[in-house]
Amino acid sequence: MSLLKKILITHYYVLVGTIHRFGSIVLVTPLILVNYDLVEQSFWWLIGNIIGFALLADSGFGSALVRAVSYFRAARIQASAERGRI
Predict the structure, then answer these.
(1) Which pLDDT tens digit goes with each residue over 23-55?
(2) How is the chain split among helix, strand and coil, in percent rounded to 5?
(3) Are 59 and 51 in contact (CB under 8 A)?
(4) In 10 A of CB 41, how many CB atoms?
(5) Is the pLDDT of residue 75 over 80?
(6) Mean pLDDT of 49-78
(7) Among candidates 26, 62, 2, which has minimal Cα distance to 10?
(8) pLDDT in the model for residue 34
(9) Is 60 left (phi over 0), alpha (psi -120 to 50) or beta?
(10) Cα–Cα distances in angstroms (integers) from residue 83 to residues 41, 74, 76, in the given order
(11) Which helix (H) or strand (E) holds 17?
């Protein structure tokens, strides 16, 4: 399989996933507003927000945290080594 074909297939799946997510929001939201009362709607939005924050945190927060910890640890090791020499 050529590289161009792999790239096109990958972009196709990303596009289909994006359309699916957007379509499900557009189709589900009116059903929720019509069929659920205010308490059930609030619970639905709360769960949606929790899932959204979890996906946001999963999308890069972990690697940023690991990087920050490694920088702080390297600085601490360097500072203790400099104190030991003086």
Answers:
(1) 777 788 888 889 999 999 999 899 988 988 887
(2) 90, 0, 10
(3) no
(4) 13
(5) yes
(6) 80
(7) 2
(8) 92
(9) left
(10) 59, 14, 11
(11) helix 3-35
